């Protein structure tokens, strides 16, 4: 069975002090659940949060990384640097990075490769714009993003990847895809994995939904057959809401 995974993406929020206070508030309330809990925090807080979650089952993730191990890339952070502090996950190809920082399917693919090389599990984000949805292009766009991101990734490696389906029009807007809509696209993604790697592997890959997930809608979303988790922005910033999300 696929272990459900609830991940918070804090984006550009919280200082180190705020981040560690958050962990202190939630850590006793998210243990003992059959859910993998991940906090994807800003770079500056990674080490402190990693220490704060010590002794718990909470995993820590970054929100981006470069595709080279080192080099003249001012302002960038590499997978080796993240691995040194024991980071478990890294969000790759978030739509905000595609939109504002020129992330392409090609750079996403390179980042997936380097993350896996350093034993960091990618949370690979895909999703369509409102315009693409209205033109009925969602399935094609999303499947294409997944295929390009997985170029030259082996069947063994793909099992380490979590895919996050995040329709861009649902991010931070309060508009959520209906649980059925989320499930439909996630099913399409799973079919794509099946075409590439076969039935057994496709049943092992975890696929999350993201976009305005909150305590009031998480249960219905998580109850969908193909939805294995949620990648949560806004609602993951509040400790009480986050605890509710994990205990859906
Ligand atoms: P919201 O939950 O704020 O809509 O953000 C979703 C997201 O982008 C998670 O990566």
Structure characteristics:
single chain, 248 residues, alpha/beta, eight-stranded parallel barrel, 12 helices, binds 1,3-dihydroxyacetonephosphate
Task: Tell me what the structure shows.
The chain is an alpha/beta fold and about 250 residues long. About 40% of the residues lie in helices and about 15% in strands. The chain has 12 helices and 8 strands. The protein has helices at about 15-25, 45-50, 80-85, 95-100, 105-115, 130-135, 140-150, 155-160, 180-195, 200, 220, 240-245, and strands spanning about 5-10, 35-40, 60, 90, 120-125, 160-165, 205-210, 230. It has an 8-stranded parallel barrel with strand order 1-2-3-4-5-6-7-8, surrounded by 5 helices. β2, α2 and β3 form a beta-alpha-beta unit. α1 (about 15-25) packs parallel to α2 (about 45-50), α1 (about 15-25) packs across α12 (about 240-245) and α7 packs across α9. The radius of gyration is 17 Å and the shape is globular. The structure holds 1,3-dihydroxyacetonephosphate (13P). 1,3-dihydroxyacetonephosphate binds near residues 212, 213 and 232.
Major sheet details:
8 strands, parallel, barrel
Strand order of the largest sheet: 1-2-3-4-5-6-7-8
Cofactors and ligands present? 1,3-dihydroxyacetonephosphate
Q: Which percent band covers the strand fraction? A: 15-25%
| Coarse structural class | alpha/beta
Weakly predicted, low-confidence segments: none
Radius of gyration from the CA trace? Answer: 17 Å
Residues in helices, as a percent range: 40-55%
Termini separation: 18 Å
> What number is the mean pLDDT?
96
Secondary-structure element string: EHEHEHEHHEHHHEHHEHEH
Which of globular, elongated, flat, extended, rod-shaped describes the shape?
globular
- List how many beta strands DSSP finds: 8
Number of contiguous helices? 12
């Amino acid at each position: 069975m696929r272990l459900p995974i609830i991940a918070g993406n804090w984006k550009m929020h919280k200082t180190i002090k705020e981040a560690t206070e958050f962990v202190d508030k939630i850590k006793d309330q998210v243990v003992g659940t059959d859910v993998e809990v991940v906090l994807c925090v800003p770079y500056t807080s990674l080490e402190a949060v990693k220490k704060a979650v010590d002794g718990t089952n909470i995993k820590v993730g970054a929100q981006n990384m470069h595709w080279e191990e080192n080099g003249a890339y001012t302002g960038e952070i590499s997978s080796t640097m993240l691995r040194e502090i024991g980071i478990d996950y890294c969000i790759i190809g978030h739509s905000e990075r595609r939109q504002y920082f020129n992330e392409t399917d090609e750079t996403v693919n390179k980042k997936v490769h380097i993350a896996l090389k350093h034993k960091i599990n990618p949370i690979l984000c895909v999703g369509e714009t409102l315009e693409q949805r209205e033109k009925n292009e969602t399935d094609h766009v999303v499947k294409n993003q997944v295929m390009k991101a997985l170029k030259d990734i082996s069947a063994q490696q793909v099992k380490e990847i979590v895919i996050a389906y995040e329709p861009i029009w649902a991010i931070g807007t309060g508009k959520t895809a209906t649980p059925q809509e989320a499930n439909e696209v996630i099913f399409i993604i799973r079919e794509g994995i099946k075409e590439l790697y076969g039935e057994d592997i496709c049943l092992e890959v975890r696929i999350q939904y993201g976009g305005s997930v909150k305590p009031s809608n998480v249960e219905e979303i998580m109850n969908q057959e193909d939805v294995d988790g949620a990648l949560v922005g806004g609602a993951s910033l509040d400790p009480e809401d986050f605890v509710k999300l994990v205990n859906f």
